Amino acid sequence: MPTLNLENVPTKLFIGGEWIAGSNPDLIKVTNPATGEVIAEIANASPEDGRLAAEAANTAQDAFAAMPAQERSKILLKAHALLLESKDELAAIMTAEMGKPFAEARGEIDYSAGYLQWYAQEGLRVQGSHGQSPSGRGQILLTREPVGVSFLITPWNFPLAMGARKIAPAVATGCAVVVKPAEKTPLTMLFLARIFQKAGIPAGTLNVVTTTNSSKLTGPILEDGLVRHLSFTGSTKVGSILHGQCSKHMIRTSLELGGNAPFIIFEDADLDKAVTEVTAAKMRNMGEACTAANRILVHESLADEFGTRLAARFEQFTVGNGLDEGVDIGPMIDQTSCERLQGLVDNAVAGGARILIGGELPEGAGSFYPPTVLADVPRDADLTSQELFGPVAPIIPFKDEADAIEIANDTEYGLASYLLTNDLARAMRVSGRLEAGMVGINTGIISDVAAPLGGVKASGLGREGGVLGIDEFLEYKYTFIPND
Ligand code: ADP
Question: Does residue 358 share a domain with residue 280?
Fold first, then answer.
């Protein structure tokens, strides 16, 4: 059994290269959602502390931009090595504050380390271009410069990866940052800040403010134009508020927002493969992922058999404290989340859905929700338009390809989508019609450090990861050089 050691987790704010208590005496109580116990009490930044962090980043910005890319790359590589060395220690901390099983927390650390490595390399290859004006007047030089101080706001579901995916390209390009992790999972980010400190990140280039006063802290930073770029991962509701606040000073925005991913299973699909891939797309991180399959669209000829097999697979899951041996499904982030899930399940059942497994909130300590499969879910059930963010798989039968595409696109979101078929022409045709930033063909796992992740419609703006992810942190500058 992994041991939880909180000794190396900082409990203060990281501002200007120092660990400071901040001006707010009310601490943040961090709880373990598996037990309800308070595991740590840490600094709770006031709006003034947030401003100090933004000012520290501004002070450090020019020197960071001027630092050779190779030096910044070395810091990322050092942090990469230190992160992997601390894997078990940090995984236990992440599990204790967020709930995911220990093995998944270890996996998230590998995934996050992958971003540090990827951008350590990508940062060495930032290049502009050069061209001749066809008029013969002169030459057109395009250079790339860091966008400047970036404000990074991250969610609780992947407390490390969502931060690493933003911090790595920022460091690679020379953008000083202020990071505001989610108040439910601040320990992982504080631990990462300490790793960067050990890796030699210059004072003020990485600042971390943990707070329960998110809106009071972030609003003034954005509205007073203290930063040049906001990179946010979280709900569409909050993303939209922040986008509005950024408009005043035309702050660059990169927004990774909510999803409502369809997973389409066509009539030629192999059912065993369908169960494996839907399970991966649904149950990774207990379903608490914006890329999680939210609606399982199954051809009507297979829907019953698929439901029976999926329920049999879900029966094999062990639900419990993520730090316990053999647990596959940890708790939901909090009790509110469990109650919201139950409401959505009850609403679907009232509309005619059948529960094949799960569907009932258990008694007792911890925020647990059982793996649940719902068959014959009506197309207008509330859960078809809202993010479930939990281990609930609703099966919606469809008639034909056109019907499947229509249901799939009938949402304001456009993040991930998945389809399963052995017909290549159909796979490409349907993939082209899906209103989504990402499509998984015959797979339930699409996250990859080398891929540009992001959405269309209400799912956001911009891309993170891969070659494109670095663009969010860079500006173009065009210089004209006359020929005479
Ligand atoms: P979720 O529903 O997944 O918790 P949120 O969008 O509420 O997603 O939270 C994502 C991040 O945004 C968290 O760090 C949270 O503290 C922060 N946040 C929430 N509300 C606001 C707000 N009004 N202004 C700034 N940040 C916010």
Answer: yes
State the amino acid at position 141 in one-letter form.
Answer: L
Q: Do residues 206 and 125 both lie within one domain?
A: yes
Tokens describing residue 39: 């595991």
Residue 344, domain CATH: 3.40.309.10
- Give the distance (Å) from ligand 1 centre to CA of residue 181: 9
| Residue 211 to residue 43: CA distance in whole angstroms | 7
Query: How does pLDDT run across 407-459, given as a tens digit for each residue?
Result: 999 999 999 999 999 999 999 999 999 999 999 999 999 999 999 999 999 99
Domains of the chain: total: 2
Distance CA 168, CA 1 (A): 32
**458 ligand 1 Cβ < 6 A:** no
Per-residue pLDDT reduced to its tens digit, 214-250? 999 999 999 999 999 999 999 999 999 999 999 999 9
**For residue 353, is it within any domain?**
yes
In single-letter form, the type of residue at position 76 comes to L
Q: Are residues 140 and 281 in the same domain?
A: no
Specify whether 327 is located in the same domain as 377.
Answer: yes
256 is an active site residue: yes
Entry pTM: 0.98
CB of residue 189 inside a 6 A radius of ligand 1? no
The one catalytic residue in 104, 256, 288, 387 is: 256
Could you give the CA distance from residue 247 to residue 235 in angstroms, rounded to a whole number?
Answer: 18
Q: Does residue 7 lie in a domain region?
A: no
> What residue owns the CA closest to ligand 1's atom 22?
215
List pLDDT tens digits, range 125-140: 999 999 999 999 999 9
Question: Cβ(460) to ligand 1 under 6 A?
Answer: no
Q: Ligand 1: which of 153, 213, 341, 413 to mutate, judged by most atoms within 8 Å of the beta carbon? A: 153
In a domain, 368, yes or no: yes
**CA–CA dist 307, 210 (Å, integer):** 43
Cβ–ligand 1 distance for 223 under 6 Å, the answer no
Ligand 1 center from residue 212 Cα (angstroms): 10
The answer on 383 and 267 residing in a single domain is yes
Residue 363 included in any domain:
yes
- Burial annotation 245-268 (CB, 10 A radius, 16+ → b, else e): bbeeeebbbbbbbbbbbbbbbbee
Q: Give the domain extent around 173.
A: 13-257+459-479
How many angstroms separate the alpha carbon of residue 240 from the centre of ligand 1?
11
Check pocket membership of 182 for ligand 1, CB cut-off 6 A: yes
- Count the helices and strands in the chain (H runs, E runs): 13, 20
Asked if 200 and 341 sit in the same domain, the reply is no
Q: Which helix (H) or strand (E) holds 29?
A: strand 28-31
